[in-house]
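Lab manual, section 2.4: Encoding a predicted structure.

Procedure: take the sequence of the chain (235 residues), apply the prediction step described in section 2.3, and record the output as structure tokens. A sample record is shown.
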Amino acid sequence: MTKEELHLRPRHCNMYESMYGSDDAESSDEVGTNLSKAERERRDLGTEFVYGEVTYRTMARLLSHVLRKSNRRGSFVDFGSGTGKAVFSAALLKPSKFTCSAGAEYMESLHDHACEIRDKHYKTRVKPLIEHRYPDLKMPSIYLERSDFRAHRWSEKLSDAVSDASVLFAHSTMFDKSMLSHLAKITQDLVSNEDTVFITVSHELPSSSRWKIVDELFLDMSWGGCVVYVHRLKK
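Recorded output:
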């Protein structure tokens, strides 16, 4: 961990939470939950779109664990990125490890909220402030895309981010088997580095895919504790 990252980690309340307009983590979580519930009811969407979030402290522990031996600087990609909490956490916690922190989200209200946070806070306040304090540190860019990762073809930008990824992430507690199989199939064909890790929550990727479990952790999410699976491609 670099000196800059040691400095950034304790800024949970005054940097990360300020981006979401509250120092109260519970209130911040409720924004995404309420947006998701309203859109699910309006569009009659299924339970796979029930909302859940990873906490900043859990991301700190998780990224430190999976990147402890990595010297490569690639991208971070979150499938089902919601209001962007994992995307912004990765950028703030490990700026020396990621060139880009990206998210793909299907629900319009969640995507729009994440874009608002990126444009009003990360791009105009947070990123310039950190880079001014640490001139040698290049903060990751943020790429947010409203798309359905269940589609057979992904956009060029999302495909490029996956190809260059150091870490792929899916808060997959409510994903069904077909969604997990689809994610596993497309990502295993796009990823260009054998050291890339794919982290899933509550459910592992299909054993029939080229992804294999290399670690399991029990970590806290916004809604409670669960098993987190860390995968790498089979060699």
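Check your result against the sample. The radius of gyration is 17 Å.
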